[in-house]
Structures are given as structure tokens and as C-alpha cells.
Amino acid sequence: MADIVNNTAKQRYELHQDDALAIAAYERHGDVVVFTHTVVPGALQGKGIASRLIKHALYNVRAQGLKIDPQCEFVAAYLDRHPEERDLLADAG
To answer: Rounded distance, CA 47 to CA 33, Å?
Structure first.
């Protein structure tokens, strides 16, 4: 199984698998992580890679005591499917 890493220098979560790279890019603004886009190469699509990336990223954000701003459409859709994660939203209260 591929490992997901937080490449802070490039501000993205990365998953290397089968000679391909999937990413969930973000920008850090103080205590808020703004997810800007998620990219999964064609060879990895349909395998749940993007969901794995975002699940890991949200776990990491929570562990750091940060909040999120889901500008990325995939991250916003993920939150719709996983309402238990919505407490991470920067405007959640």
C-alpha cells in the first residue's frame, strides 16, 4: 500500500503509486488550511485514491488543531459525504 506524505515544501499531500503521483494541494493561512485542488492521474482514477488523500489530510489537519477551507470541489464533495468532518470547517462556529 502506498504511503501518503505531507510535502510541506510544496504544500500538498502526495500519494505515489504505480509510478504515478496523486496530490491534494493546499495553502496554509495561519490556522486554516485552504485546499485548492486535488489531482489524480488517469492510471489511478476509480481506485478511491482522492478519498484516501483527503481522509488522511483531514486527519492530519485535526491532529494539528487546524481548520480547513475547502476551495477544492472534491474536498467540498467529500465533506458532503462525511458530515462528521464538518467541524473542521473554518466557518463552522
So the answer is: 25
Those residues with Cβ within 8 angstroms of residue 10's Cβ, 6 or more apart along the chain or in another chain: none
Residue in 41, 40, 24 with CA at minimum distance from that of residue 76: 24
The DSSP output letter for 68 is E
How far apart, in whole angstroms, are the C-alpha atoms of residue 93 and residue 24? Answer: 25
Angle of helix 73-81 relative to helix 49-63, nearest 10 degrees, comes to 80
pTM of the model: 0.92
Pick out the chain residues at pLDDT < 70: 1-2, 92-93
Q: Are 50 and 24 in contact (CB under 8 A)?
A: yes
